[in-house]
Design a protein that fits this description.
By secondary structure, this protein is an alpha/beta fold. It is built from 17 helices and 27 strands.
Length: 663
């Protein structure tokens, strides 16, 4: 982590939007609020390079100096996220091209193609100047490359991208024959005879080649990672401070495979905003935090951005009710964050984000929002000793960006089967049982877990599938849900029956998929209900746990359990409703010998433990409208009170207990 004390509090400061007369007031308020870290120069390009090759660091010098004089550390941006108007005017060829062949105009942000050599050259020249000037500045605690890379421009289809894509494919496959085999180009007369014939998968009159689509996603993720590496390389020539960029582990961003990005980061940082378009936004927040911890290898991580209240980019931008911001923040801390930062410090008076909430709202400091900021700050100070501890889990949930890309593609059995929905469903069920899960990549060593949950892992390599199978054979427990193991990394169907890579381990064979149309439900013999999906399944070695009572396949197995080697595997061949999936996972966790950290609930209560070598802390977060009681003995870090054996947590409140004895 960056060299910051305890659980740090931070924010973005877009000081360019304000006159110098406001800066002194802002820094004084930052000190009052206990702000430890301030991100600056995130979108500073047009300010520090107002004309090509002319650099003006006077304003940035002043704000960094002011922060430093007041004991506030700096998260210094390279400023390259959005090009200035002069650059897109001089070089319109850097603008990104959409899949329909139209060029996107400047006027928003990230108006650049990741494959543009002109943009790369100009961006690195800027980074060099910033790094030379501030590389050894004592205020700089962290370097921030660009901003939310790929949020808007991850997929570019122009000629520069076409050339870069061909070069990437050559490195991946080595020969045109190998590419033709991987993409199955004998279908629809798509066989290539020369690399020059290959284009990005722009919009076509019909369905596009699915292998090409997945490879273009891989290429695009790698292309932006290459840009990050290039900026980071420049920085590391001039600084010893850690270098990172802000991930977007969230429900609506899927363009980048962060498993491949994470090893390049000195600090894992994530931006997360509560998504009120979802049915259970609190559960998605917890999932994103656990996935970010997985990217950090279980180590503490940084929440680079969140909001105090409403955002500005959802159809209905809901404000947070009193206490919600504190609960959101401490949920991230409970799940491994050692730094809590916000976009932004002061709410903008102009621009596209003027209605985005901030630490200092439009109404100023005589507000409920500001008082909640002060409460959060004092709470984080009280939790300082938690810093450096980690979360321990008995359950692993496997998550794959590649499987997300391959599942949510054009030609598939059901357009209603969406990968992330199925991952979230499995996560919600585990969360409602009161158990903590690590979210890990396929290929992770699972030997330290009692149970692996494998939701909708449609695309999986032979090697990663073998690790899951071997884990069960060696005594592990696994729950695999439908549409898993179907294709290999070339998006080639594994023949011989579904679920492909997991047939033997699960002891089942499915002959055909029977997706359900919208609104159609099925009932199982045991009383469970399901939707979305069924399949013509037969058990080979598995025990039939439940079967369809109606629908297109009455009497056909829907849930099975199999003894495989020394372990046990479950297969769920339909989309069980939330309560029924929870019940199935309850049986699987009990069979695996797993006890919940917290109670079963409707998701309104979260109990998570962070622990170090000689201490442990229990976070009890009550999202509900009723007071609860939870058994624990220790010391409440928030109230300062002893807890003799039963903790009372009010509706909407959070408590953090240093446990005694150490768990």
């Amino acid at each position: 982590m960056a060299d910051l004390p305890g659980i740090s509090l931070g924010c973005d400061y877009n000081f360019e939007q304000w006159s110098p007369s406001v800066w002194a007031e802002d820094v004084a308020l930052m000190r009052q609020a206990g702000v430890d870290l301030v991100a600056v120069n995130i979108f500073g390009w047009s300010s520090i390079e107002p004309r090509p090759g002319e650099y003006d660091f006077g304003t940035l010098d002043s704000i960094i100096g002011l922060l430093h004089d007041n004991g506030i550390r700096v998260n210094l941006g390279t400023g390259t996220s959005s090009p200035p108007p002069w650059l897109t005017t001089l070089h319109p060829e850097i603008l990104p091209e959409a899949a329909d062949g139209t060029t996107r105009s400047p006027g928003g942000r990230q108006a650049w193609c990741p494959s543009s050599p002109v943009f790369r050259e100009r961006a690195l020249a800027l980074v060099e100047q910033v790094a030379i000037r501030y590389g050894d500045h004592p205020a700089v605690a962290l370097w921030h490359v660009s901003n939310e890379l790929g949020c808007h421009n991850a997929l570019c289809y122009d000629e520069a991208s076409a050339g870069a894509f061909r070069a990437w494919l050559l490195r991946r496959y080595g020969s045109i024959d190998a590419l033709n085999k991987a993409w199955g180009t004998s279908f629809w007369s798509q066989r290539y005879s020369d690399w020059a014939e290959i284009l990005p998968p722009r919009l076509a009159l019909s369905l596009r080649n699915p292998g090409q689509l997945v490879d273009f996603q891989r290429f695009s993720s790698d292309e932006l990672l290459g840009h990050y590496r290039a900026e980071a390389e420049v920085l590391r020539r001039h600084t010893t401070a850690p270098v990172t960029t802000n991930f977007m582990v969230t429900a609506h961003i899927r363009a980048l495979d962060y498993w491949s990005w994470a090893p390049e980061m000195d600090v894992i940082a994530n931006d997360h905003y509560l998504d009120n378009r979802l049915g259970d936004p609190d559960a998605e927040l917890s999932f994103a935090a656990d996935l970010t911890r997985g990217l950090a290898g279980g180590r503490p991580w940084m929440l680079m951005e969140q909001s105090t209240g409403a955002v500005n980019w959802q159809p209905y931008n809901l404000a947070k009710v009193p206490g919600q911001m504190l609960r959101n923040s401490l949920t991230h801390v409970a799940r491994g964050a050692d730094s809590i930062c916000f976009f932004q410090w002061r709410a903008s008076a102009q621009g596209a984000e003027k209605f985005h909430s901030a630490l200092v709202p439009h109404a100023g400091t005589d507000t409920v929002g500001w008082r909640e900021v002060l409460e959060l700050s004092s709470t984080l100070d009280a939790l300082a000793e938690v810093a450096g501890t980690t979360v321990r889990a008995d359950i692993a949930i496997l998550f794959s960006w590649e499987s997300w890309w391959a599942t949510d593609t054009e030609a598939r059995p059901s357009q209603d089967v969406r990968y992330l929905d199925q991952v979230h469903a499995a996560y919600r069920a585990a969360r409602r049982l009161g158990v903590t899960a690590d979210v890990v990549a396929p290929g992770t060593d699972l030997s330290g877990y009692r149970l692996a949950i494998v939701p909708c892992l449609h695309m999986v390599s032979d090697e990663d599938a073998a690790l899951i199978n071997d884990y069960v054979a060696g005594g592990g427990h696994a729950v695999v849900t439908f549409y898993s193991g179907i294709v290999d990394v070339a998006d080639r169907v594994r023949l011989g029956g579904y679920p492909g890579a997991f047939r033997e381990m699960l002891g089942v064979v499915a002959e055909e998929f029977f997706p359900l149309p919208p609104g159609r439900r099925v009932t199982l013999a045991g009383g469970a209900t399901a939707t979305l999906w069924t399949e013509h399944l037969r058990a080979t070695t598995a025990e039939i746990v439940d079967s369809y009572a109606d629908g297109p396949l009455p009497g056909v197995p829907a849930v099975t359990r199999n003894s495989y080697g020394e372990g046990t595997s479950w297969y769920v061949a339909t989309a069980l409703d939330d309560d029924d999936l929870r019940d199935l996972l309850r049986a699987a966790t009990r069979a695996a010998g797993i006890r919940g950290t917290g109670p079963e609930s409707d998701g309104s209560v979260e109990v998570v433990r962070r622990a170090g070598a000689d201490r442990s802390y229990l976070f009890v977060i009550n999202h509900g409208k009723q007071d609860i009681a939870h058994p624990v003995t220790g010391h409440d870090l928030i109230t300062g009170e002893a807890v003799p054996g039963m903790l009372k947590v009010g509706a909407g409140s959070v408590r953090v207990i240093r446990e005694e004895p150490v768990a």
